[in-house]
Design a protein that fits this description.
With about 180 residues, this protein is an alpha/beta fold. Helix content is about 30%, strand content about 20%. A hairpin with a 7-residue loop joins strand 8 (about 145-150) and strand 9. It is elongated and about 65 Å long.
């Protein structure tokens, strides 16, 4: 955090007009980040979006940490936009959320580290859709994680909250495809 009163640092981080005059394109507060290896203001990354927790978090996680987004799907879009578009050699990991929170940086890192093995999706758990999710994946509440493997193989289901190490552990146990006769 930089106080605007620190004129030297504030002007160093400000945008510059062709005339050399300093300004902050989106006003104040302004958010900037120095990526790894950046040693001058020329390579500073500037946040240009709406100043909301979700927008800043998404910008930071995707732009600065270079981690993927994990999208939410509805009961209508899950089949056509996620299940149908996932490569057949990949495990599908579906995380059910009660609150609709964004994927944590750690979940996104696991997604990135395992992109050769799986694809990830979120579903917002809603009570009125409970019978659909029970009939489809045997999910009866959130939070839950479902691993969909080869066709014909029963989904692997975990209920409850997961800390980072437990999530990594179940990912490692379930990231490979399995066939019915193995």
């Amino acid at each position: 955090m930089v106080e605007l009163g620190d004129i030297q640092l504030a002007t160093y981080l400000a945008n510059r007009k062709p005339t050399g005059q300093f300004y902050f394109r989106n006003g104040l507060p302004s958010i900037v980040a120095f990526p790894t290896g950046c040693k001058t203001a020329d390579c500073v990354l500037r946040f240009n979006g709406e100043l909301s927790i979700d927008a800043v978090t998404d910008w930071f996680v995707t732009t600065i940490l270079n981690l993927p987004c994990i999208f939410y799907y509805t009961k209508e879009s899950l089949g056509k936009d996620f299940l149908a578009k996932t490569a057949p050699h990949k495990v599908m990991v579906i995380l059910f959320s009660k609150t609709g929170e964004r994927a944590t940086p750690y979940v996104r890192k696991i997604s990135k580290d395992n992109r050769a093995y799986g694809t990830f999706a979120f579903i917002l758990w809603q009570e009125e859709e409970a019978s659909l999710w029970w009939n489809t994946f045997e999910v009866d509440s959130a939070p839950a994680i479902v691993f969909l493997k080869d066709p014909g193989v029963k989904p692997v289901l975990y209920h409850g909250s997961f800390n980072n190490s437990r999530f990594l552990e179940v990912m490692e146990q379930n990231k490979e495809q399995e066939s019915e006769d193995s």
